[in-house]
Write a structure and sequence with these properties.
165 residues; alpha/beta; 4-stranded mixed beta sheet; 5 helices; 4 strands
Length: 165
């Protein structure tokens, strides 16, 4: 799995954890090991520009996903998943820090960025949360991936509750 993490935000971020949880999420979703992903960490001003340009919404947001090859998790009938370029995930640590502090189960900026990374991966794989059933599926899968990664890493304590909208 080729995953690049590029921190352009000026904020210190646990880039290794972002890389590790992205790799874990992609493996858990059975994405081809030669697929490629890019994670970019930006400041609030850059995120706001992207949010306006692509969503026509004001203000910075927490995470945005830009799919490339529209890869999907393989079905049970597929012998091998296709490989390709997953796309880009853009994270904003300033928004993540605020969301983590305001969450019912308060958590750190880095914990929120880990959650947002999984959220971004799922969006790249075609998951969404516009409808109640889609939201239940995506957020359930998101929680299972974060919990599984935390268990594998030996991280104790409650997992961050979903704060992404």
């Amino acid at each position: 799995m080729s995953i690049d993490v590029n921190n352009e935000s000026g904020t210190e971020v646990d880039e290794q954890a972002v890389l590790d949880i992205a790799r874990y999420a992609l493996a858990r979703m059975r994405i081809h090991p030669l697929s490629e992903l890019s994670v970019i960490v930006v400041d609030a001003a850059a995120m706001e520009e992207l949010h306006i340009q692509w969503m026509d919404l004001p203000g910075p947001t927490d995470v945005m996903s830009f799919p490339m090859d529209e890869l999907r998790p393989p079905t049970k009938d597929e012998a091998e998943p296709p490989q390709g370029l997953l796309g880009d995930i853009v994270l904003c640590p300033e928004v993540a820090a605020r969301q983590g502090a305001e969450a019912p189960t308060q958590h750190t900026m880095d914990e929120e960025l880990q959650l947002l990374t999984v959220h971004g991966v799922l969006h790249l794989l075609g998951f969404d949360h516009e409808e109640p059933d889609e939201k239940a599926e995506m957020f359930g899968l998101q929680a299972a991936i974060v919990d599984g990664w935390r268990e594998e890493k030996g991280i104790s304590g409650p997992s961050p509750a979903p704060t992404v909208s």
